[in-house]
Design brief:
This protein is of the alpha/beta class. The chain has two domains: 5-175, 3-Layer(aba) Sandwich (Peroxisomal Thiolase, Chain A, domain 1); 180-326, Thiolase/Chalcone synthase (Peroxisomal Thiolase, Chain A, domain 1, 3-Layer(aba) Sandwich). It has ten helices and 13 strands. It has helices at residues 22-26, 33-40, 55-70, 94-102, 118-131, 207-211, 221-241, 260-270, 281-284, 291-299; strands at residues 5-14, 18-21, 44-47, 79-83, 108-112, 138-145, 163-173, 178-186, 194-196, 217-219, 252-255, 308-315, 319-326. The strands form four sheets. Strands 1-7-6-4-5 form a five-stranded mixed β-sheet, sandwiched between helices. β12 (308-315) and β13 form a beta hairpin. The structure holds oxa(dethia)-CoA (UT7).
Length: 329
C-alpha cells in the first residue's frame, strides 16, 4: 500500500464583522495611516466585539461551515488541535470547549501554544495521527482574539494585530498529496522580545500587574523584525531545497501575515514571484494563529489538485518553520 499522507480536504474561516481601520486608530493613539501602511502593509483588522465572547466563538462558525462544506457531522471528528495564544481560559483547553459547542462528542483534543507558528506546528502534529493510521478525521484550528491581549494605548502593537480564526480538516490521502515535509524550529531565548509579562504562573495577575498593564502583549518590534525577516525566509528556502523545489515549482507561497516587509523578504529569498504569494494582511492584520488558515480559506478556489504550497511562519518564543504540502482537491 502506498504511504499515507495527511491531506487538507476542507478549509474554512471566520472573521468578526467589526472593522478597525487605520483611520479609527488615528483617534486612539499617535499614529497615521501612511506610517502603518508603509511599515506594515495593514489597512484594517477585524475585532470581536461583545461581552463574554472568546476565541472559541470564532471557531464555532468556522468549524460548522467546514463540516457543512465537507458534508460530515461533528460526531465524525476524532481529534481537535486548537492552535491559539488567546485560549478562552487558561484551562480547560479551548479544544474541549469547542468540541462541546459543536457537538464533537467522539473527539479528544488539546490546545497548542506556539504563537504565530502555532498553526504550522498543529498541522505537523495533526498529520502524524493521520500518517500513523491512528485517526481519519483531524481538525486543526488556528485562531486568536488578539484584541483581548492588546494595549490600545501602545501604538507599536495595537496597529498590528486583529482577530480571526481558520480551520482545516485532515484526512488520509493515498495519491501522494498532503503534507510532504516540515522544518520546525524554536529558540526560547526569544522570550525577551515578545511576551506577556504577567498572568502566568511566574507572575500571577494582581491589582498591581493590571495597573502596570502587564497583562498585555509586550513586543520589541525591531528585534523581532530582525529575527523574523531572516528566519522565516531561510526556513522556507530550506524546505524547498531539501525537496528539490525551484521557485517555478511552487504554485503558492503562504506566509504568516505579520508584516508585508517580512512577506516580501520571504518571497525574494525563495524566488517565488509576487503573483504566487498569498497576502491578505491589508484586511486582517496579524491574527497570530489565524493567518495561515485564513489565507488558505480565502484562496481555496484558486488551488488545484497537486499544487505545491509552501507555508511559512515566525512568531514569539521564538518559533518558526515551514511546511511543504501538495493540495489534494
Ligand atoms: O507575528 C509575530 C512576530 N512579530 C513580528 O513579526 C513583528 C515584527 N516587527 C515589526 O513588524 C516592526 O518592527 C513594527 C511594525 C512593529 C515596527 O516597525 P519598525 O519599522 O521596526 O519601526 P520602529 O520600531 O523602528 O519605529 C520607527 C519609528 C519610531 O520613532 P523614532 O524613534 O524614529 O522617532 C517609533 O516611535 O516609528 C515610531 N512608531 C510609530 N509612528 C507612528 C512606532 N509605532 C508607530 C506608529 N505610528 N504606530
Amino acid at each position: 500500500m502506498s504511504k499515507i499522507h495527511a491531506a487538507i480536504t476542507a478549509v474554512n474561516g471566520y472573521v468578526p464583522e467589526y472593522v478597525l481601520t487605520n483611520h479609527e486608530l488615528e483617534s486612539m493613539v499617535d499614529t497615521n495611516d501612511e506610517w502603518i501602511t508603509t511599515r506594515t502593509g495593514i489597512k484594517e483588522r477585524r475585532i470581536l466585539k461583545g461581552e463574554g465572547l472568546g476565541t472559541s466563538d470564532m471557531a464555532v462558525p468556522a468549524v460548522e461551515g467546514l463540516l457543512k462544506k465537507r458534508g460530515i457531522s461533528a460526531e465524525e471528528i476524532e481529534l481537535i488541535i486548537f492552535c491559539t495564544t488567546t485560549p478562552d481560559r487558561v484551562f480547560p483547553a479551548t479544544a474541549n470547549i469547542l468540541a462541546n459547542k459543536i457537538g464533537a462528542k467522539n473527539a479528544w483534543g488539546y490546545d497548542l501554544q506556539a504563537t504565530c507558528s502555532g498553526f504550522l506546528f498543529g498541522l505537523a502534529t495533526g498529520s502524524q495521527f493521520i500518517e500513523s493510521g491512528k485517526h481519519k478525521k483531524v481538525l486543526v484550528v488556528g485562531g486568536d482574539k488578539m484584541s483581548s491581549m492588546i494595549n490600545y494605548k501602545d501604538r507599536t502593537t495595537c496597529i498590528i494585530f486583529g482577530d480571526g480564526c481558520g480551520v482545516v480538516l485532515l484526512e488520509p490521502d493515498y495519491e501522494g498529496n498532503g503534507v510532504i515535509d516540515s522544518v520546525l524550529k524554536s529558540d526560547g531565548s526569544g522570550v525577551a522580545y515578545l511576551h506577556q509579562k504577567a498572568g502566568g504562573s511566574v507572575k500571577p495577575a494582581t491589582h498591581e500587574t493590571i495597573e502596570a498593564r502587564e497583562h498585555y502583549l509586550y513586543q520589541e518590534g525591531q528585534a523581532v523584525f530582525k529575527f523574523a525577516v531572516t528566519n522565516m525566509a531561510e526556513v522556507a528556502a530550506e524546505v524547498m531545497e531539501r525537496n528539490d523545489l525551484k521557485a517555478e515549482d511552487i504554485a503558492w507561497l503562504v506566509p504568516h501575515q505579520a508584516n508585508k516587509r517580512i512577506i516580501d523578504a520571504t518571497a525574494a529569498r525563495t524566488g517565488v514571484s509576487s503573483d504566487k504569494v498569498i497576502v491578505n494582511i491589508e484586511r486582517f492584520g496579524n491574527t497570530t494563529n489565524g493567518t495561515l488558515p485564513l489565507c488558505l480559506w480565502e484562496w481555496e478556489s484558486k488551488f488545484k489538485k497537486g499544487d505545491n504550497l509552501i507555508l511559512a511562519a515566525f512568531g514569539g518564543g521564538f518559533t518558526w518553520g515551514a511546511i511543504y504540502l501538495k493540495w489534494a482537491y
